[in-house]
Amino acid sequence: MKTSVLSAFVFAVMVSGCATNTGQLPISRVWPTGFNPLVAPEPVPNFPNVHIINGRIVVDQEPIYIKQVEGVNVIVWALNTNGPYFFPAKRGIDFDSPKPKHLDCDVVSRDPKKFLCTYEKSDKRKYAYKITVTDGTKEVESDPTVMND
């Protein structure tokens, strides 16, 4: 009995929510209605997403703010798993000099949709890097930054 009452309540709330949106634009991040965490989740600093929009690279965080730890720090960039673009091995992410200490970067376990960089705790500063992606025929590049804390 409790389950059916709860189900009816949830259904009523959902239906009434649809009715109150009559004549308005849909609740979406596409429309300028403000930030909606259900549509556009909060970025995770160590795991930035990389989008290719109209032939240009867009990182969901700029700069990427990393709260460093004493050991190994990790950043994994990810492309759309269903998209045509992938990271070229060894050069998908290329940090400018000066680089973070003991920097090592490559695709993740032969998955060219993800690119991993590890480094030891480094100076608090902004580190410039280049992202390179390809669809197998042409390359697209961008120059975002990482900010160590």
Concise account of the structure shown:
With 149 residues, the chain is mainly β. It is 13% helix and 37% strand.
List the helices and strands and how they pair.
Layout: H1 2-20, E1 49-53, E2 56-59, E3 64-66, E4 72-79, E5 93-95, E6 104-108, E7 111-120, E8 126-134, E9 139-142, E10 145-148
Parallel strand pairs: 1-4, 3-10
Antiparallel strand pairs: 1-2, 4-7, 5-8, 6-7, 8-9, 8-10
Helix content: 10-25%
CATH class of the largest domain: Mainly Beta
Instruction: Identify the CATH architecture of the largest domain.
Output: Sandwich
CATH topology of the largest domain: Immunoglobulin-like
Which percent range describes the beta-strand content?
A: 35-45%
Structural write-up:
With 149 residues, this protein is mainly β. It folds into 2 domains: 1-41, no CATH class; 43-148, Immunoglobulin-like, CATH 2.60.40. It is built from 1 helix and 10 strands, in the order αββββββββββ. The strands form 2 sheets. It has a 5-stranded mixed sheet with strand order 2-1-4-7-6, with no helix packed on it. Strands 3, 5, 8, 9 and 10 form a 5-stranded mixed sheet that branches.
Looking at this protein, list some descriptive labels.
Immunoglobulin-like; 5-stranded mixed beta sheet; 2 domains; mainly beta; 149 residues; 37% strand; globular
